[in-house]
Specification:
alpha+beta, globular, 10-stranded antiparallel beta sheet, 14 helices, 7-stranded mixed beta sheet, 616 residues
């Protein structure tokens, strides 16, 4: 039994010794593991610390780079502003670079003058074999067919911000050096922000007998034994003026919004109110358009009666909120009044009285015998403009693009005063005012909004000024002071200084915009003088190498030699051999200039010149 007890104790002791050894081993392993964990944790913390330091250094470097870039940007912007100061020494490459890098400027709409908005009547008369009259082609109407670089070099906080570009150009026939300046018509209104006001509109539709003529023929030719149809009308021109007028009115109605108001007045030898002024939302538009499509022409032409009734429709809106509503009368006519007041002076007074009351007028001329002379004179009023219609498809496209602009005058009573010891204003081309060339002041009645191309060029966006040098020229400097009013009557002023480089003796053009304007003006002057020469056979209208392309002037007596008061008969197109040679020179000049200008629209003018040059 003793033996067994001792063995049992030994066994117990051995077991305890093993446990102690095992515990000791575990303790050593744990200590070793703890040490390793401590070393790893410390290493991890060290690495994190190093990483934070690296990130801090990188952040400081980035901030420093941003700061340097900011300083460089400020310096660059400052240099750009310095370059854009108005010294007007030619910087064509700089302007192109600025335009390329500042596309945001092109989101702004441009401005164009009132008055004529096309030269369609001039082109259609020539294409149909008729002799045009001088008022069929106007400078502002011709300019509105084209887009121009206005010379804009900076954005502005003002509604209207003029820019000026200069050129020295030699007459292509006399080679006399001439000085020109364009006034660029820029606005601060973004295209995305532009929205016309609500509209109170009255359409005045001519339904007199002359509107029953085929579009491409002269109504009063039927009363002459000497005149026969000169051309055969194409499919578009087989419609009567009345049909095209009806379609045009319906196109106008399609441009109206639900909160616009409109009424309709019809006139021949009397006037009739077809529709009172009412909201579009409260009008059966389809019914109105159907009634308009069924209108037939008859009777005489009493433009005064139609215009008077339209004016009276605005009586209940005479206290309108002009910040919310625009008031306009649109007259669709061939403008050959023979009843009531027919004098230009009398009709002009009606349009002017309405303008003073905030009721503005648009004329839409229909037919190749559209009387541009009358409309050109009676639209020489604040807020007025006029278009001509060739066909309903073309008119629909134009109204879709331009209606909002057509009814929204923005700038009124623009005056530019030139103060210089070196230059005088000789002529102004492209203004809607005939009251120019007095005391070095350029006048514009109205500026309307207009489209801007992707290149930043403005449709009809310049006025061209011809300058003459005074004797004893000093430093070529001139101060230009512009004043104008917005539609609320608030007046603004802008003063800039320009400077012709006195060392420049050769031709230069500050940009292609002024170059294009000079080409178009010389083209118009050549054609206006051709018209008067052929009609009067007066040698003073003959263009020669001594004087070059003379500026166009005409007297009342010369106008009487051209046509009667308003009832216009056609004259067969003719071109003398002397003028054919002059027109060939003009064609070569335009082709040569267009190699630099690169405007395909100028091909329209070359086409007209070809028709005249090849006329038998």
């Amino acid at each position: 039994m003793e033996y067994n007890t001792n063995n049992s104790n030994d066994s117990t002791n051995n077991s305890n010794n093993f446990k102690n050894i095992q515990t000791s081993s575990n303790s050593i392993a744990y200590q070793k593991l703890s040490t390793e964990n401590y070393i790893f944790t410390k290493k991890l913390k060290t690495e994190k610390c190093v990483m934070k330091k690296k990130l801090l250094i990188i952040s400081i470097i980035i901030i420093y780079i941003i700061f340097i870039l900011f300083i460089v940007s400020l310096l660059y912007y400052s240099s750009i502003k310095t370059k854009m100061k108005t010294n007007f020494v030619p910087k064509q490459n700089f302007v192109k670079d600025y335009i390329a890098n500042n596309a945001i400027s092109y989101s702004f709409i441009g401005l164009s003058t009132g008055g004529a908005k096309d030269t369609n009547n001039f082109r259609e008369n020539i294409k149909n074999g008729y002799f045009p009259i001088s008022t069929d082609i106007t400078y502002n109407g011709l300019f509105y067919d084209y887009y121009f670089d206005t010379g804009r070099k900076a954005e502005s906080e003002y509604l209207f911000s003029p820019s000026y570009s200069l050129a020295i150009s030699k007459d292509p026939i006399s080679y006399i050096k001439e000085f020109y300046m364009t006034v660029g018509l820029n606005s601060n209104i973004k295209e995305s922000d532009f929205q016309r006001k609500k509209l109170n509109l009255v359409v005045v539709l001519d339904i007199s007998g002359s509107m029953n003529e085929i579009f491409s023929l002269y109504y009063y030719d039927r009363f002459s034994n000497d005149i026969k149809n000169i051309s055969k009308p194409d499919d578009d021109d087989k419609k009567t003026k009345m049909e095209i007028a009806n379609e045009s009115v319906n196109i106008l109605i399609d441009q109206l919004k639900a909160d616009d108001r409109f009424g309709i007045v019809l006139f021949n030898h009397t006037a009739n109110i077809m529709k009172q002024i009412e909201l579009v939302s409260e009008t059966d538009i389809n019914s109105i358009k159907q009634r308009i499509s069924e209108i037939r022409a008859f009777g005489g032409t009493n433009l005064e009666a139609g215009y008077s009734d339209a004016t009276n429709l605005f009586e209940k809106y005479k206290n309108f909120n002009n910040s919310e509503y625009e008031n306009r009368i649109i007259i669709v006519t061939d403008a050959m009044p023979n009843y009531g007041t027919t004098s230009t002076k009398g009709l002009l007074s009606y349009v002017k009285d309405n303008s003073d009351k905030g009721i503005y007028t648009t004329f839409i001329g229909v037919g190749v015998d559209f009387n541009t002379k009358l409309i050109e004179e009676i639209s020489d009023v604040k807020g007025a403009n006029y278009y001509s219609v060739h066909n309903s498809k073309e008119f629909k496209e134009r109204m879709g693009e331009q209606f909002e602009y057509m009814v929204t005058p923005l700038v009124f009573d623009l005056n530019l005063n030139l103060k210089s010891n070196d230059y005088n204003i000789e002529m102004v081309y492209g203004s809607d005012s005939s009251n120019n060339n007095k005391e070095n002041i350029m006048k514009v009645n109205t500026l309307f909004p207009t489209k801007t191309s992707e290149k930043g060029e403005v449709k009809g966006g310049v006025i061209l000024v011809k300058l003459t040098e005074k004797t004893g020229k000093q430093n070529g400097e001139a101060q230009l002071e512009v004043s104008y009013k917005d539609r609320n009557g608030k007046e603004y002023k802008n003063i800039q200084t320009i400077n012709f480089d006195k060392n420049k003796n050769e031709e230069f053009y500050e940009n292609l915009g002024i170059r294009k304007a000079i080409v178009l003006t010389r083209y118009a002057n050549a054609l206006k003088n051709w018209i008067l020469y052929e009609r009067t056979e007066d040698k003073k209208f003959m263009i020669g190498s001594k004087k070059g392309i003379i500026d166009f002037f005409y007297t009342e007596e010369e106008v009487k030699n051209m046509l009667g008061e308003h009832e216009r008969m056609s004259v067969k197109l003719k071109v003398s051999e002397e003028y054919k040679e002059i027109l060939r020179t003009m064609k070569e000049y335009i082709i040569k200039e267009n190699k630099e200008i690169k405007d395909n629209v100028l091909n329209k003018e070359i086409e007209i010149l070809d028709l005249l040059i090849t006329k038998k």
